[in-house]
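I would like you to help me understand the sequence and structure tokens below and explain how sequence relates to structure.
___
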Amino acid sequence: MLISIVIPTYNRNTTILKTLQSFIDVDFDKNNFEIIISDNNSTDNTAQLVKQFIEDNKTYNLHYHFEARQGVHYARNSAAKLTKGEFLYYTDDDMIADSQIFKALLKIFEMEPKVGSATGVVYPIWEIEPPDWLVKMCSNGWLSLNYSDEEMLITDTDCGVYSCHQMMRREAFFNSGGFNPENTKGEWIGDGETGLNIKIEELGYKFGLTNKSIIYHIIPPARMTQEYLNKRLLNQGNCDSYTDYRKYKFSTIKLLTGIPSKLYQSWLNYLLSIKFKYRKLESWRMRLAKSYYWKARIKYDWRLAFDNSWRQLVLKSNWLND
């Protein structure tokens, strides 16, 4: 088996079948890839839909996996243990694969044996016409979108590899300790694939990107709102505090003395959002969202300062043994 495709899913009965269909339609020998759908305790009819899809497509290597522990890192990491492929490919349950998605990715690994993690471009499929401000401000990582003019890029550090379009060497993934936590039972703990890529880099691997490997992200109306942008940056604040603490291991004093500047940034961005909104400047939206970002960092750093068990959780590196 060359490629193991892992698709974590949670209550995505509206898109999961589109995702699965796009992957069995890829221009690639079906005997050289498998798909593991890791159901993270869905409460809708996702499980029934997936099982029926597997039944209707028996000539493909499709497998249903149930992960009861809520948290996408559990779904990703536990499914990895069931894989047989030389390469692990991760995506999400709201993605549509281009038919040529794998050929260009594999070429990166063939050209550079030291590449441990690679990606391509991620383009949007808007379910409705998006507002202009969203296209202008969020056609990037805020919506897990990735544009590039690079036909082939090899770097020493993470070049923007998102878990919705990520291929890894098997040994790089397992030696790294797997995906770090992120959204776990509604609580944003860590930095997910960002942390995974940092660990892969620390092992001495390189990263690759090619604009010849394309996947499409279905963007629903719920992600085209100010509320979503606020939440997205709040989550990023948690992620960045987690990443920074793992890197620098701040003392309690350092954590606490850093809070006033973050508080200043939170209030500054909030007040600027009011000012810009009054002047009818669209930049108020990002300023407001950034105030949520800094609030999240304050709360996270405060917890790190006083909760030893939380600090130990953040410093944990191997999430495959849970």
Observations:
- The mean pLDDT is 97.
- Residues 226-315 form one domain.
